[in-house]
Design a protein that fits this description.
UDP-galactose 4-epimerase, domain 1; 42% helix; two-stranded parallel ribbon; 17% strand; 2 domains; seven-stranded parallel beta sheet; Rossmann fold; alpha/beta; 11 helices
């Protein structure tokens, strides 16, 4: 009997390529799609993974992709990052919002059983909640394109679940950390602090030492996506889930201290970019709660801050 297919959009990117590797290790037949059709990050798996060229902002491409491969499940990872969305809002909306609609509609048309969506905790940016801790049911009022598009996609997934019975599930990822990230956003300073120090170069951070952001190691991130997909459908109540890494959430001073403990002589200083600082504080200043993921499908992170730093070294 032929194996069913899992499709990973953005499948050669930082998160997508690691997810593809995990699915292959699990014995899955995988199609990885990207805009160029190149096998970047998956060269060693070219004989095991079907690399497909497709632009998620093109309905024709998406329909052809899903019709050709008839996946049982789609992991929708592909997206434009926040700075690019700010620079070109129309492209950001087309890729990150309309692109998700195309994926969900193609899933409906061609009988895909499940869609797992890589959302973002940026949906909670601009929150006016007075609660000291935000959870999956806190107010969502994102005030920039990336977060707004992710929230639109989450709500569209809920519609397809209600209206058409699609097994839609979403993971609200925090800042995903790990060696080898080639694309960065406003939160790149966390990765860069470790990367530059590991190469013996000084690093000037553009946010203050007390700035804290929720982070998750790349291996924990891909495991969260796969574990959510595998959870029994009757256990999935919340649908779109926050997942956290190290808690309490580390600030940059915590990170710098871990780096300096591992790399004596590391030079880290600060030159604050006020607009970026304000934006990050609007997203990350609160504390967060991932207990719904813990209770409903057993989520638990494995990488603490020390293990994250070690993974670069």
């Amino acid at each position: 009997m032929e194996k069913s297919v899992d499709l990973v959009t953005g499948g050669t990117g930082f998160i997508g390529s690691r997810l593809v590797r995990l699915l292959v290790r699990q014995g899955k037949k995988v199609v990885a799609s990207n805009l160029s059709g190149s096998a970047r990050n998956l060269e060693d798996l070219k004989d095991q993974v079907n690399i497909a060229r497709a632009d998620i902002s093109s309905f024709t491409d998406v329909l052809r992709l899903v019709e050709t491969h008839r996946p049982k499940a789609i992991y929708h990872i592909g997206a434009m990052l926040a700075p690019s969305c700010d620079e070109n809002p129309q492209a950001g909306i087309q890729a990150n919002a309309i692109g998700t609609y195309y994926i969900l509609e193609a899933a409906r048309l061609f009988g895909v059983r499940q869609v797992i969506f890589a959302s973002s905790m940026s949906v909670l940016s601009g929150s006016v909640s007075s609660d000291p801790v935000l959870n999956d049911f806190s107010v969502t009022r994102p005030d920039f394109i990336y977060g707004a598009a992710k929230l639109f996609s989450e709500n569209l997934g809920l519609f397809y679940k209600r209206k058409y019975g699609l097994d839609y599930r979403g993971v609200r990822l925090p800042n995903v950390i790990g060696p080898g990230a080639l694309t960065h956003g406003y939160l790149e300073y966390f990765n860069k602090t470790i990367e530059e120090s590991s190469k013996g170069r000084p690093y000037t951070c553009y946010v203050g030492p007390q700035t804290k952001i929720p982070v998750l190691h790349i291996q924990d991130a891909v495991r969260a996506l796969a574990e959510l997909a595998a959870a029994p459908v009757l256990d999935i109540k919340t649908i779109n889930y926050i997942v956290l890494g190290p808690t309490p959430i580390p600030n940059h001073a915590d990170l710098a201290n871990h780096v300096k403990a591992k790399i004596p002589g590391a030079k880290i200083d600060y030159q604050i970019n006020d607009p970026v600082q304000k934006l990050i504080d609007s997203v990350c200043a609160k504390s967060y709660d991932d207990s719904f993921a813990q209770k409903e499908w057993g989520w638990k992170h494995e990488y603490g801050l020390a293990e994250i730093v070690d993974s670069f070294l």
